[in-house]
Amino acid sequence: MLQIIRERLHQKYRTLDYPRVQPTLPERYPGRPEIHAVACGDCRACADACPTGAIRLLSPERPGPGGVERGPALDMGRCLFCGACARACTQGGIRFGGDHHLATFAREDLILTAVPRPLTPPRQSGRLFGRSLKLRQVSAAGCNACEADINVLGTLVYDLGKFGIDMVASPRHADGIVLTGPVSLNMREAVLATLAAVPQPRLVVAVGSCAISGGIFRDSPECCNGAGDWLPVDVFVPGCPPHPWSILDGLLRARTDTAAWDA
């Protein structure tokens, strides 16, 4: 017993008082991209360096979501956060900051340009679920990276349960699903069946670039390109994989109806 008490005093309190206290992430963590208006000209270094086609170059002839813009447009839904584009850009048009708040309620809000624009409100109110949110995690041909970062939310550092959010074994006991992986053809029917078993109202949270767009498997004949085109997704959490803090933030946004970037 004395050994247990001694060890408890040594370990101290490890659960972060999130979101009141924000986590300190390592310097090499590639957080939310920052886009700057630069004159790209004929340079396509950043777009050519991207392995998933997440970048397109804007010009008056090819305007962005905010109208006539210039510089790169980066789709976080396809981005692997590898940083190859930032290293290739000689004008500093792209850099990755340390912000872990990445979640959005709409697919188009994941496309970043140099001109900020209003974010889309949630498709349905997460407040319907009150202070309790039960979710069924579905791995649809994922590599286990996103799955591992979801699983770690149950540890004492993150303590998912203190927010009233739990992962449950049956979709019939859930308020929604958390989808990971690019959704292979063999898993499409299973995803639809799982979602159908969740009673209304229900949420769909897409975690990771694979679940949002197919990621590095996009346009594969054995892949459904994630869930963005054929499932009613309520919350998008980009990343490859997203940091556990980003996933936790996205789950909290699903319940509070607040866009992550407005936090």
From TrEMBL:
Pfam families: Fer4_7, Oxidored_q6. Belongs to the complex I 20 kDa subunit family. It comes from the Bacteria. This is 4Fe-4S dicluster domain-containing protein. Its cofactor is [4Fe-4S] cluster. GO terms for molecular function: 4 iron, 4 sulfur cluster binding; metal ion binding. The keyword Iron applies. Coiled coil: none annotated. Residues 31-60, 70-99 form the 4Fe-4S ferredoxin-type domain. Keywords: 4Fe-4S, Iron, Iron-sulfur, Metal-binding. The keyword 4Fe-4S applies.
